[in-house]
Amino acid sequence: MQTVLLDTPAGVSARLGWDPSLSVHDRRRMIAKELIADRLGCEIKDIVIVREDPRGFGYHTRLIASRGSEELPLAIHTASFRAATVIAISEPGMPVGIDIRDLHPEPADLHHMQKHSHLLDKNNVEDLVQHWVRVQAVLEADGRGVRVAPEHVQLNSPRTVGWLPDRKAHYALADLSRDGWLITLAHGDHARP
Q1: How confident is the model over 69-84, as pLDDT tens digits?
Q2: What are phi and psi of 63, to 5 degrees?
């Protein structure tokens, strides 16, 4: 599988990989291993990635990395779209969200974006998808996911900071787009614009 290191803000590392012959789960594990081995300066074979056991119905499990018998103090964030997967790693407790799309949404996805967007021109597909990838990254960083409607996410006018009105946290938005994939990373807690 071909992977590319992405240019990220301090405290976060990210890598994009694509391969339609691999399952999303295999891509996630392979990219995470490569990214963590790079960060630690060790061999990829030294890193083990497992999925956390679910705590209950509806619980979204996370990936856990270990080296030898020691669990590594890293948070692994994932997003996949079609044959592409992006993985970001950060220190635990740092709010991070990531999303990936391309500029060719399926009709049902496009309709969903138009329905939940508060953009004035919902027919500008490129602008809508670029807005949507930022909104989804903010929702991922917030951690409540689908329990919050996408139309509640607020972005400043240059789309560099996002937040939800019912929370004090604000997230810097970094555009990591590469090779035809639109990728946004939402990270940290920033003062309201």
Answers
A1: 999 999 999 999 999 9
A2: -85, 140
